[in-house]
Design a protein that fits this description.
The complex is a heterodimer.
Chain A: H1 13-17, H2 30-43, H3 46-55, E1 58-59, E2 62-63, H4 75-78, E3 81-83, E4 94-101, E5 104-111, H5 112-123, H6 126-133, H7 140-151
Antiparallel strand pairs in A: 1-2, 3-4, 4-5
Chain B: E1 9-10, E2 13-14, H1 15-22, H2 28-35, H3 39-48, E3 51-54, H4 62-68, E4 74-78, H5 98-106, E5 113-117, H6 123-133, E6 139-143, E7 146-149, H7 150-159, E8 165-167, E9 172-174, H8 179-187, E10 193-195, H9 206-215, E11 221-223, H10 233-238, E12 244-247, H11 259-263, E13 273-276, E14 296-298, H12 306-313, E15 321-325, H13 329-339, E16 345-349, H14 366-375, E17 381-386, H15 391-400, E18 406-411, H16 424-433, E19 439-443, H17 451-460, E20 466-470, H18 476-483, E21 491-495, H19 501-510, E22 516-520, E23 539-544, E24 547-552, E25 558-563, E26 566-571, E27 585-586, H20 587-594
Parallel strand pairs in B: 3-4, 4-5, 5-6, 6-8, 7-9, 8-10, 10-11, 11-12, 12-13, 13-14, 14-15, 15-16, 16-17, 17-18, 18-19, 19-20, 20-21, 21-22
Antiparallel strand pairs in B: 1-2, 22-26, 23-26, 23-27, 24-25
The chains are: A alpha+beta, B alpha/beta.
Chain lengths: 152, 595
């Protein structure tokens, strides 16, 4: 994994600040950014993410920008911090998910399920999920034989 | 020399010479090469080719087959993906024999041998076959098929009087009665091989088996469903040239059970291949008198522990083929390595995982493999489920087993820590050493084979035509490295890997010989659109989207099981098939739905 700070401009902040006329900010193409964010998260070191999420405290429903346990100077700027508030807008089953990233703050309204999935995804290794979904299977005859043996 | 074609020559030699020579070529790849030399040789191969195997029935049509090979005598067709053998494929996926049987009934007048594997066969198909080809059919194999009943077999039994081989092993047959066997017994006296092993047909009468033995004096192989062994005394007494017996059942009826009664069983004198279902330690001695003659032994469905295996194998110095469960243990493999120097094929299946059900020592690891590699130098086929593994054991295999053509290893998830991972170097030495390897399966776990390891697999599997990879690699880079090699890989199956659709598509395009791809467990995109990168003419892409299936669990209770999506892609000259069930989608439809 690269040690240099990675800057990911999901929301086209640079483009806007480069002097283009201010278009009515459609905030983001939700689906596309979501997927981008997902793919970024999946490439990050899960251990780091875990420690960040663990050390973060939930206050006013938002994770404060707390320092990760590691004092590694390279890690802080590149890390987005995630929070899913315990008390949030329960309007139409969605709560707000706040992402602190590289000096920018973004808020999404997602359902509790989706928020939990994102946090889970960040904390887990992607391939592990695939493994546990696909248990080893046995041939039909052998399965039947082992069943029958239990009955005998 | 006068004959009708004497005026046709190639390079001064009459056609007749080539026609006689070509008769000696049986290997399909040789035949294929011959047919590409020139038009005349193509024609000669066309009229003289006796056997064709169609690895996937949807790659061509019955009519295409007829147009090219009108004198075909033997045909083998395969339908459902291999994963169907593990209950992963929907029952109605496809692979219907009907269009083929219709064409066979209409046109293929020379056809006398048919083998359908993992296909859907109906009673109507069997009736049509019996009516149209009954007088000439010599071999009929319905191998892991489904969709028919014993009524269909009645037609076969009545009409196929020249049938030498009837093979039904592991087919799902709806049982309506046992008359089919009786009809077969009455109408046939040339039967050599009868196999309805693992079909669970319960209404067969042992009297009909005896009748077959009496009428068919050439009967050499009989493998049956669960019929009490004690009832077969008459059968064994009559089948005097029998060489192979499998199935039956020991102790099915507890009131008749006593180990003495089994000891009085006497087997035919030439018996050299045996598998007795539910055979336990008490009955094992009945095999001892002829154990030294045994060349094939099937202990998959026996009740033996590790010690029993050691005792039995010790007495079988001529063993060439052994199938059993991992209860054989490392010690059993050590005995095998010491005593069975002629062993060619070894299959070790996964026994019960639950504690207390199997012998606790009955586990296979690198220890057993190392002994095996050094002791059984003639091994050609190994399929094994291991609980522990090292690079060294794979290196031993690569160093000693130069005749290995088929190697399949599954690492069970029983043990949490495997000390010697990753297996990159081991697999490299194995592939380099076993240069004859044509079939290779490596089913591991996360971290057991890195991307570098996958690149070795690509680099050193020069002759491998079929590969099954499970839980291998770390990223797309691994798959892409693999796909730069594997020059002869025709069929690739992958499960529980972390590769993206994009990587799968690129790999499919890069692998030079690939004609069939099956994947379950991959990083799916929302619309499967990344897969379209491999879209091209003659390449069919099918998806079995993720399903939730209700099926009984180990305790017989109905539970909902998640089945992740599958990708199936293959070359076809027949275009997209038209018999999709609602569980399977051709990729074009999927793409349409999501735009």
């Amino acid at each position: 994994m690269s040690r240099s700070a990675v800057e990911l401009d999901f929301f086209r902040m640079e483009k806007e600040s480069a002097g283009k006329p201010q278009q009515p900010k459609k905030l983001f193409d939700r689906r596309r950014s979501f997927r981008d964010i997902q793919s970024v998260i999946s490439k990050m070191n899960p251990e780091i993410l875990k420690s960040v999420i663990a050390t973060g405290s939930v206050e006013n429903g938002n994770l404060l920008a707390s320092k990760p346990k590691d004092d590694d100077p390279f890690l802080s700027p590149a890390l987005p911090l995630l929070s899913a508030p315990a008390f949030g807008n329960r309007v139409s089953g969605t709560t707000s998910l706040t992402i602190f990233y590289n000096g920018t703050i973004s808020v999404f309204d997602v359902s509790l399920n989706k928020a939990e999935n994102i946090l889970k995804l960040a904390a887990e290794n992607v391939s592990k999920t695939v493994d546990s979904d696909l248990p080893l299977t046995r041939g039909k005859s052998l399965e039947r034989f082992l069943q029958k043996r239990k009955e005998r | 020399m006068e004959d009708g074609k004497a005026n046709k020559t190639i390079g001064g030699m009459p056609d007749t010479v080539f026609e006689l020579v070509i008769d000696f070529l049986h290997d399909e790849r040789d035949r294929d090469a011959v047919s590409l030399v020139c038009r005349r040789w193509y024609e000669i191969d066309k009229t003289t080719r006796k056997h064709v195997t169609i690895a996937l029935c949807y790659t061509t049509t019955p009519q295409s087959l007829w147009r090219r090979f009108q004198h075909l005598e033997s045909l083998k067709l395969k339908g459902k993906p291999r994963a169907a053998m593990f209950n992963l494929i929907p029952e109605d996926w496809g692979g219907y024999v009907s269009p083929w049987v219709e064409e066979i009934a209409r046109s293929f007048s020379c056809l006398n041998a048919l083998h359908f594997r993992r296909m859907i066969v109906t009673d109507l198909d069997l009736e049509l076959l019996a009516q149209s080809r009954g007088q000439v059919l010599q071999i009929l194999k319905l191998d892991k098929c489904s969709g028919f009943s014993t009524d269909g077999l009645l037609h076969i039994g009545r009409s196929c009087k020249k049938l030498k081989t009837l093979f039904l092993e592991e087919s799902s047959i709806i049982e309506k009665g046992g008359e089919w066997l009786h009809e077969l017994a009455l109408n046939n006296n040339v039967l050599e091989t009868l196999n309805f092993y693992m079909t669970y047909l319960a209404k067969v009468r042992f009297q009909d088996l005896e009748l077959i033995a009496r009428n068919c004096r050439s009967l050499v192989s009989m493998k049956i469903s669960e019929c009490e062994l004690l009832d077969l005394v008459g059968f064994f007494g009559t089948a005097s040239v029998l060489e192979e017996f499998g199935g039956g059942s020991i102790g099915e009826q507890p009131e008749r059970y006593s180990s003495e009664s089994y000891c009085s069983l006497s087997f035919p004198p030439k018996l050299c291949s045996l598998g007795l279902t539910y055979m336990g330690r008490n009955e094992m001695p009945i095999v001892f008198p002829f154990a030294s003659l045994l060349r094939r032994l099937d202990l998959l469905y026996a009740f033996l522990d590790m010690e029993d295996h050691c005792l039995l194998i010790h007495r079988c110095p001529n063993l060439e083929v052994l199938e059993t469960r991992n209860v054989i243990g490392d010690r059993g493999l050590e005995v095998l390595a010491q005593c069975c120097k002629r062993l060619r094929r070894l299959r070790i299946e996964r026994g019960e995982d639950e504690e207390g059900m199997e012998d606790e020592e009955g586990l296979v690891s690198h220890r057993g493999l190392i002994a095996l590699a050094q002791g059984c130098l003639e091994l050609e086929y190994i399929a094994v489920y291991v609980t522990d593994i090292t690079n060294a054991s794979l290196q031993y295999i690569g160093t000693y087993l130069k005749n290995l053509c088929d190697f399949r290893l599954v690492l069970l998830d029983r043990q949490e820590t495997i000390a010697d991972l990753p297996l990159d170097n081991g697999v490299r030495v194995l592939l380099q050493g076993c240069y004859k390897l044509k079939r290779f399966a490596f089913y591991l776990r996360q971290g057991a084979l890195t991307d570098v390891g996958l690149s070795y697999v690509g680099q050193y599997s020069l002759n491998v035509r079929w590969m099954l990879l499970g839980s291998v690699g770390e990223s797309d880079a691994g798959l892409l490295a693999l796909s730069k090699g594997c020059p002869r890989l025709q069929k690739l199956e992958m499960r529980a890997c972390c590769f993206s659709e994009r990587a799968l598509a690129i790999a499919a395009l890069q692998l030079p010989s690939l004609r069939y791809l099956w994947v379950q467990g991959y990083r799916a995109s929302e619309t499967a659109s990344d897969l379209l990168a491999m879209a091209r003419p003659f390449w069919n892409i099918e998806l079995i989207p993720a399903r939730r299936v209700v099926s009984p669990n180990a305790n017989g209770q109905d539970v909902i099981v998640d089945h992740p999506a599958h990708i199936l892609a293959y070359y076809s000259l027949a275009g997209q098939r038209t018999d999709f069930p609602n569980t399977v989608l051709p990729l074009d439809a999927v793409a349409l739905l999501n735009t």
